[in-house]
From TrEMBL:
Name of the protein: Alpha-L-Rha alpha-1,3-L-rhamnosyltransferase
Keyword terms: Transferase
Pfam families: Glycos_transf_2
Domain (Glycosyltransferase 2-like): residue spans on this chain: 3-160
Species of origin: Vagococcus humatus
GO molecular function terms noted in the UniProt entry: hexosyltransferase activity
Position of the signal peptide: none
Highest taxon, organism lineage: Bacteria
PANTHER family documented for this protein: GLYCOSYLTRANSFERASE (PTHR22916), UDP-GLCNAC:BETAGAL BETA-1,3-N-ACETYLGLUCOSAMINYLTRANSFERASE-LIKE PROTEIN 1 (PTHR22916:SF3)
InterPro entries per the UniProt record, alphabetical: Glyco_trans_2-like, Nucleotide-diphossugar_trans
Gene3D superfamilies in UniProt: Spore Coat Polysaccharide Biosynthesis Protein SpsA, Chain A
Length: 237
């Protein structure tokens, strides 16, 4: 069983096309867990309008932010394999098939694939997000902490890894980096799939839009990451 975990907020411009790109790749027994973070636009009504029993919608009682919303979606997921999804991207038709093939043939516990970077009009910015952003995906904890190369919407993982990452530490800045760090410490089989399997949409409304940070914010973030690392170490079997 596959669980797609998504957090939504003010996503009425994008949610229909993203769900269109996902649903046909799933079996009737799979599920899409959507946690909406108090959207004031038509996001929730557009999701409900689909009347797809595989879509399970939860609306937060108050605004929690993307990290806690993703944590809730992951907690609610019942699948053996969990795919993370952002509301505004577009999956390629072979994404699920390609990732599941890696899980089965490589005994992977975490699969990280590539994506084509596009703008809000879906015009290509770069054919490879991992090359464009100089992402490192692998077993080096030092490199993962120095510069996070794990991008949530390009990640899928097993239930066994889910059980290690939940609950999220309260101080983490990025849930994807936390998942990557935990997978490294747990000595999980991490497979990088060097193939673009989705359009990764970059625009000013993204929660993950690239923003310049002050030096003090960078130092604070690094300290929080090191604190989270100590929590991850305590969860090693």
């Amino acid at each position: 069983m596959i669980s797609v975990c998504m957090a939504t907020y003010e996503g009425e411009k994008f949610i229909t096309r993203q769900l269109d790109s996902i649903v046909d790749q799933l079996a009737e027994t799979d599920e899409i867990i959507i946690v909406d973070d108090q959207s004031k636009d038509n996001t929730v009504s557009l999701i409900k309008k689909r009347q797809d029993p595989r879509i399970k919608l939860q609306v937060n009682p108050s605004n929690l932010g993307p990290i806690l919303s993703f944590e809730k979606a992951i907690q609610l997921a019942q699948g053996d394999y969990l795919f993370l999804a952002d509301q505004d991207d577009i999956w390629f038709p072979n994404k699920v098939e390609k990732v599941m093939e890696v899980f089965k043939t490589e005994q992977a516990e975490l699969v990280v694939h590539d994506a084509k970077v596009v703008d809000g009009d879906l015009e290509m910015i770069h054919p490879s997000w991992n090359h464009w952003n100089h992402n490192y995906i692998g077993p080096s904890m030092f490199r993962t902490i120095a510069k996070n190369g794990y991008t949530g919407c390009m990640m899928a993982f097993t239930k066994s890894l889910k059980d290690k990452i939940i609950p999220f530490p309260s101080m983490i800045e990025m849930h994807d980096q936390w998942i990557g760090m935990t997978a490294i410490l747990q000595k999980c089989q991490i497979i990088e799939l060097n193939e673009a399997l989705m359009d990764y949409v970059r625009h000013g409304e993204n929660a993950t839009a690239i923003k310049k940070r002050s030096l003090s914010d960078k130092v604070k973030g690094r300290l929080c990451t090191l604190e989270a690392l100590e929590i991850a170490k305590k969860r090693v079997n």
